[in-house]
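BUG: 3D viewer hangs when loading the predicted structure for this chain

Environment: internal workstation, default settings.
Expected: structure renders.
Actual: progress bar stalls at 90%.

Input used:
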Amino acid sequence: MEPIGFTSAIASIPGVFKSCIDCFEYVQFARNFGDDFGVCLARLEATQMQFTRWGKAIGIFEDPFNPAGLQEIATEAEVKKALKWIGLIQDKFEAAKKNIRWEEQIDKTKPPLRKLVFSMRKITEARQRKTKLGTKIKWALYKNSHFEVLIEDVARLVDKITELFPYLETKQQDLAKEEAKEVEVESIPILTEILATQKTDKLLAMAIKEGVRAEGHVFRDVEINMNKDGLFRMGNTYQNVGGSASEAMRFEKIKVGGSGVQHAGHIFIQGTAKTHEAQRELEERLFMYGFGEYDI
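Structure tokens produced before the viewer hung:
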């Protein structure tokens, strides 16, 4: 068999990619996944979203696809690696099919997880400009251990693929920032935990971190009732962080009652507290006598 040429390899990427994306969408989870169902589904959706981000960056979803554009920024070796790894992802899904039972998917997930899944699915579907899958039969994994093998292998391969074509890193970073904005605020901790668990998708993890820092803390509809000895504070303590940017804070509809000391804002400390008790003593002193600079 004659080796595939550079031009042919590039031209074949859209078809192979789209066939591989379908593999994600035909996977379901059996009832015995229980409480793990939502997390497993979110992990699969997160990996698919990362994969479509790469596809978007190289122009796969453009109609028509422009192979010349990819040829300008990629080497023949990189393109052939991409094809090889996409093929391996499909192989992982085919191997997982050997450990299945035919069951209807359950759709009972906890609200934050459900919102996270819907947010990510909305992004991937918008990129693909697709509505419904074809008539291909969906299949359900019935053991968590089988899913772990599948998702770890697939997530690792997707991570490798997205690191190909260095010229596309900035474009992928921008797409990751858009994704982070689409995720519901209450779902951010879950997505962060998923990315940390899989140890993949550094671009999205960084985009979330930057987004959280820019948005900062939001305190909304807070009611505080204090006694005369009460100390209440909203904000962070920064110690020896000269030159660093602190997180923003926003307060909306804060109602304070009773008597005591309340502080809204960050505390900046220079020096080193020897113990947690010393740190606490300093913070109390700041509350009682004003917020200035103190040495410890």
